[in-house]
Amino acid sequence: MAQRRKIIIDTDPGQDDAAALMLAFASPDELDVLGLCAVAGNVPLSLTSRNVRIVCELCGQSDMPVFEGAMHPILRKQVTAEHVHGRTGLDGAELPEPTMAVRSQHAVDFIVETVMREPAGSVTLCTLGPLTNVALALQMEPAIAGRVRELVMMGGGFFEGGNITPAAEFNIYVDPEAAAAVFASGIPIVMMPLDVTHQLLTRKDRVARIAALGTRPAQVLVGWLAFFERFDEEKYGSDGGPLHDPTVIAYLLKPELFSGRHCNVEIETQSELTVGMTVVDWWRVSGRKPNAMVMRHVDADGFFDLLTERVGRL
Question: Is 244 considered catalytic here?
Answer without folding.
Answer: yes
